[in-house]
Amino acid sequence: MTSVSGEAWFADPALRSVLALLNSDGGEGRVAGGAVRNSLMGLPVADVDIATTLRPDVVVERAKAAGIKAVPTGIEHGTVTLVIDGKPFEVTTLRRDVSTDGRHADVAFGTDWQTDAERRDLTINALYATADGTVIDLVNGLPDIESRTVRFIGDAATRIAEDHLRILRFFRFFALYGSGRPDADGLRACARAKGSLGKLSAERVWSETKKLLAAPDPGRALLWMRQAGVLTEILPETEKWGIDAIPGLIEAEKAFGWTPDALLRLAAMVPADRERLKAMAERLRLSKAEAATMDYCASAPEIAPKLAETAFDRLLYRHGQQGLTMRVKLALASARARGLGDPEALAFAGLCQRLLARAQKWQKPSFPLNGADVLASGIPAGPKVGSLLGVIEDEWVAGNFHDGRAKLLARLEALAKEG
């Protein structure tokens, strides 16, 4: 019998307290979904979610009586978050779908574990662990855990019709947990239903896409998304640009210890066109910070093969550290991918490594003059103040920031006399 009773996370006193609270007076609670899946796959367990036969109001009453903080995070859908020693546990009442429209579901609470399991999306996400650690498999998920098969529960098309976002979840979970080729039925169903993604809110689509792009290696999933037409559906910007840079980027991340960055991977997949990326950011409702990051990358210049490090400093001053760092990383990943047997690519990769190190420790120098200095030189207030200041700053940058304030003031005086 499969069990998780020996796992450290399952012995957590806070979790034991929650399970004891739910498994008394005729109630039952089981750990559900991701914690069981990851534990059986030998992967770290982060959040622990629990399913229960108790209605949400009963869960709240029991928690209050036991002195446990209860937060009604999604009580209309049956979810209450119990917090013990600062650790949150989402507790959700067993449910069945009354109606679905591909975006939202009306649910009714129940006590049937089979019904609750069958309304979930993927077999590997529908396993339960009882209070003694015994794993309960009601949808034939254990064989899929062993073979690392990502498969919809029951009919794939039906599961997708219930929630169109499951198309993207299928590929995200394949990126995280799948091996070999995606499940054929699931892949066909996703390809046929890809047009339904347009019915979802942009926020849901971007949230799921960002999670997929942040997977340790989304390369195979992105390939199958392209094959199924799903990638073009959500990111038409990739249609003529593609995902060819992704494998090299993943290898560079591994080689240099870079933290997987969803936005850097997105930048590798789309053209560096500021207007198109602005439209993409608006369509997908990227946050202001995310949209700015994409714009910084697109507006930064490409890295020339023989760029001098002093010239790179000037680029950093003009274009900023963030966008240029992204550009250098992309150029380095590309050069490494071409490098075998290509001396020029290897040399460029070496240059990019030096530039990246330089960018990461670079601090923007402060221009020593300001508008008050120009006014003090006798130039009246007006457009000429900024224009003159800009000329001197350009010269200062061209000289690699070497000139000090005294020399710049002398230059200012000379220009002011010229009128």
Automatic annotation (TrEMBL):
It holds the Pfam family PolyA_pol. Its cofactor is Mg(2+). The keyword Nucleotide-binding applies. It comes from the Bacteria. Belongs to the tRNA nucleotidyltransferase/poly(A) polymerase family. Residues 188-240 form the tRNA nucleotidyltransferase/poly(A) polymerase RNA and SrmB- binding domain. This is CCA tRNA nucleotidyltransferase. Keywords: Magnesium, Metal-binding, Nucleotide-binding, Nucleotidyltransferase, RNA-binding, Transferase, tRNA processing. Residues 30-151 form the Poly A polymerase head domain.
